[in-house]
Design goal:
single chain, alpha+beta, Aminopeptidase
């Protein structure tokens, strides 16, 4: 059986967490600062748990509870990622998730040590403005993209975080182009994330926003700052290391889709690995032809893209071919004569 815990009982699962304590969002949900759901096998004395936070889904405790595992499988969405607290859960991954295309990948956790970019304010070009985010000024931010900043925060009670710096953003005129914001808070610990508009990347703005957020947070009494990223996101961990973060650990997670923020997070070879993964999954469940074709496109492999599209059209004759052929993932070869001939042929078939 599986039961949803009352928030007042969330603390009961703390003892089950062994290796995912670096996920601060778990503690944030347990302490009630961040919304989330926790499911267990037994309400009074849990031995297995599923913890669902805004940042991750984690299974912990006893992995050999068949009825609980069946309940988890019904709860998790087809596209939900999942992290296993202990390695024995990895052996049960198909028992707890309905998507057979889950793929294991590596993540990194960083902890802030000391600020190595002290002149960040002076480094900002005068066409930009750096501003900070506080609870009492959050609603007053009315620039372009301000809704993305406001949507970032999921705190249950704003009063509980009113004394914290919630981050910093950089704007060019009336447009916010970069922001570094707090994901979750537990006492004197926070975790943060960053985003830069695609048209303003590689200008050093992310480093400045991150340094400003870290500096202001430490001045406000924060003692520990965490940072998570995918192992393939070189840009993310390069910025973290530049500012003064040190890698604390590497850990594994499962995702049914490439865990990226930008398509350039993966090399052509890595996109090929995902394409091959989806093709292997098609032998079990023929559901992943679109994903395979897109990954072949991002690997710049036109021939394999065309072969996969042919397989998809043969399987699903009613597939909207025009939409399929115009996927952005095929942009690198859509002007080639061979692709145009292929598109003409498949449209007429």
């Amino acid at each position: 059986m599986i039961h949803q815990l009352d928030p007042r009982d969330f603390g009961k699962v703390s003892k089950l967490i062994k290796h995912t304590n670096h996920e601060l969002s778990i503690a944030a949900v347990i302490t009630g600062n961040t919304p989330g759901e926790i499911y267990v096998d037994h309400v009074e004395e849990p031995s297995s748990t599923l913890i669902m936070t805004p940042e991750c889904n984690v299974v912990a405790g006893d992995s050999n509870n068949k009825k609980f595992n069946e309940g988890v499988k019904k709860l998790l969405d087809f596209y939900d990622p999942i992290t296993c607290d202990t390695s024995d859960w990895e052996e049960k991954i198909n028992d707890i998730h309905c998507n057979r295309a889950l793929k294991k990948y590596k993540r990194r956790y960083y902890q802030f040590e000391e600020l190595r970019f002290e002149n960040y304010v002076a480094s900002l070009d005068n066409q930009y403005t750096l501003e900070y985010v506080q609870v009492d000024t959050l609603d007053d931010i009315q620039y372009e993209n301000s809704e993305k900043i406001k949507e970032w925060f999921v705190f249950k009670n704003r009063n509980e975080v009113k004394d914290y710096c919630l981050g910093a953003y950089i704007r060019q005129g009336n447009k916010i182009v970069c922001w570094c914001l707090v994901d979750c808070i537990v006492g004197d610990q926070i975790e943060i994330g960053i985003h830069t508009h695609k048209d303003f990347r590689r200008r050093g703005l992310g480093s400045i926003a991150l340094a400003a957020t870290v500096d202001s947070s430490m001045l406000n009494g924060v003692k520990e700052i965490g940072w998570h990223c995918v192992d393939t996101n070189v840009g993310s961990y390069t910025i973290a290391e530049k500012i003064g973060f040190k890698k604390g650990k590497e850990y594994l997670s499962f995702s049914p889709y490439p865990p990226i923020e930008n398509v350039t997070d993966l090399t052509h070879e890595q996109w090929s690995e995902w394409a091959i993964h989806y093709e292997q999954m098609n032998k079990i469940e023929p559901k992943y032809y679109r994903q395979a074709a897109r990954c072949w496109g991002l690997s710049n492999n036109m021939e394999r893209s065309m072969l996969t599209i042919n397989d998809l059209v043969a399987l699903e004759p009613s597939v909207p071919v025009n939409d399929l052929l115009n996927y952005n993932e095929f942009a690198s070869f859509q002007d080639k004569a061979e692709w145009k001939a292929f598109a003409k042929k498949i449209r007429s078939s």
